[in-house]
Predict the 3D structure of the following.
Amino acid sequence: MSDFSVGFRAIGSVQVLDLKGELDAHTASELEAAIQKCKQDQTTQIVITGEQLKYISSAGLGVFMAYIEEIREQGGDIKIASLQPKVYNVFDLLGFPMLFDIVESEEDAVSMFSEEPSS
Amino acid sequence: MSATFFSRSSKDAAALLVGSRFRFLLALGICVGLFLLGFGFHELVRGIQAPAPATLAVIYHVGIVLCFALVWILMNHVLKRRQTTPARVLWRTLVIGLLLAATGWGVSLLGRPASLTANGPIGILNGVPLSLATTVKMSVLSLLETFFAFLVLIRFRELVLFKRTRRSERNWYLMLSFMVIASLSAFMAPPQAGVVEDLFIPTGLLLIPAVVLMTINSFRLSWVIFLPWREKVACIGLTAALLALLAFGPVQRFSLSLVPDADEYLLYYSYPLQLFVMQGLIFAILYCTTTFLSLLFHLPTTGDFQQKVGEMAALQSLTNLVNQVFDFERLTTTIVASPIEAGSAQKTWLAMPDPQSGTLRPKVVASYNLLPEHAAALTDVPALYSDVQSGRDVLILEEAATDHRIEAQPGEGIGSLLALPLIARDEMLGVLFVVKEVSRGFEQDDVEALGVFAAQAALALDNARLFEEQLEKERLARELYIAREVQQKLLPQELPQLAGLSIAASSVSAQEVGGDYFDFLPLGEKRFAFIVADVSGKGTSAAFYMAELRGIFHSVGRLTETPKDFLAQANEALSRSLDKNVFVTVIYGIVDLETETLQVARAGHAPAAVIGIDGRPRYVRSRGLGLGLDRGPLFKRTLEEETLPLRPGDVFVFYTDGVVESRDHDDEEYGYDRLLDALCAHRHEEAQALHDALLEDLNVFLGTAGYDDDLTLVVLKWHGLDLFLNRKPQASAQKTPEAAPILPENA
């Protein structure tokens, strides 16, 4: 059931979370825990990659919404990179591209942080 | 008591002989046969005034042994099936013994010579009986004596084999076997001319194991301890009397015979038989002696033993009671009361972790003979509790007053304390504290009995807990069922009837309640609004937001002119109550039959599938954020609205993502393409038939996988006003000319 996992990587000051498997109501708590951990570590520059993310449900999308406001208030952001087309479609239907930076590659996402003045 | 014993035993004696007519005749026949055999043989010897010829003697002795073997089997058969008490066994043996002894005494007086001969038995000289009376007496007395020996052995077997084991049974039959073998070995050395000198050596050797086994069997006395006091006293008297009868008999001198002179007569009657009878009587004396002593020693402890038995029985019956109680509070009260009612303690209390406090700190939930607060004040319950928990075994404080975990003063009635873990299914549910006023008050057997009780109590607590959980589960299931019923009523009970338009709709929840919603709202005579929505997540919380959305739809829907207006206001209203991680996707549309248009806006929802009469299906994917995703102006700014013309034959399919995201066993999604294909294939059908066909196509794809999400499907089909006015809508749709059917079989 729970074939979902979050991998942690750091590229400079940016925390990269690699999602793998299916993000649904049962596994959403794992992503929540991962983002909580970033918050505890005072990292607010987060890139979430979805190269191996096969599926995302509405409950999974809710996790992004739950934290984005707080992280942006602290001057950080969550950027989403390298989603599979099918998963991107789910983000797109909801209008997520209007709320998040969703880019094709992880490098783009990371470099977006360095271009922004981190205040 | 003795009267019943007597009547019973005389009846018993009669039954023994009579039993059934057949057995009576058989017994009588054997007795007469035996008498005639003995009598005839010895009369013959007397007649010829010399020992009998060897051949004849062999035939006689073999005949005697075989006949007595038959007697043994018969008696065994008659006496075997009697279930009786030890006192009765002893009483009957004594009574029959006395009867036989008295009979023997009477017979022995027959033709008794004035003086005894110098060597050997009465009336026999050099192995030759001197008179007719002697041969009669010899036969009768031998018969009586043997009869008694058999009776004692068979009777005592019941006592020796009380609570039998394989081993005790083996010892008993081994003893009998050695007795028989030793006796038969005497055939090889019959007494010479009336003088019994030393035992034949092989016979003596064979007697050793027989005697050893007799001794072993004499200590099979476990029945003694279970006797109540009165019965013990009775048995002491009976064994003493039996001993006296056996050891001294009715004659003055010491002899191993019940019946006067019988052992001497038996020697001539049948030497092997005499040996067997002698061994039987020795065993009887041994057994009576050990029984007598054992009874005597156990007499003072009878009271304690009975009390212990009583306590055990009380705990046992309370254990049964405990298992019948499911009410938690009553159960804990019963558990603490039980050790006291059984007389094993003066104070008890039960500590269990308190789930309400969340800390799992133990709390005294029930107590007996003191208040729970006092129990907590007198002892350091948490410390004792955690010590029991870490040891998972009973904790014994022999001198509680000196223990650092006991805060009670010496006068406060805590002398010794037992803390028993209540463990069920490997989980410790609580600790039962049992207190006696005296120090060192708990013996090993108390601890064991209470331990067994604690295990039962733990099981009962566990059962009660499971029972409560089950109740809770059923209650929840019932409430969810009600919630489901209520939610079903929140969906439209009937679909709008509008000229030129046919509608079909359905919604199923993956769980009892769900977050999908569809509804219709008339806006005047020629217009109506519809909504298809999906609250993120599933279950109860989604259901509440769905209900809230319904309220918004029915109130705001009337007041707004366009889908965009409605969605903007709904977003504002919902954003106030939605959790941060919850959002709602909506498709909202207004159908205007007068202008023959459909105005539609999509707030993050799965795009509507549309197909016209031309057979080219497409998705209407206007821009729009889900409700609750943005609570500021972005939502309004980005939301788009489309106005689609209604042409006869147009089909609009609105659905929730449960349709396109349902997956089959191979984890493949149904997907948007399959939906369009199915729509294309069935586009000529009536709204309801089309709706059903789409669901059927989905179900065929899923196979047995089933839905794991809420699923809603709404189909609108426009037939056109003119056609509707002129002809039946069904026919109109079917007969609309069509340029290029994609799937000809549907044409």
Remarks:
- The mean pLDDT of chain B is 82.
- Residues 506 and 582 of chain B are 24 Å apart (CA to CA).
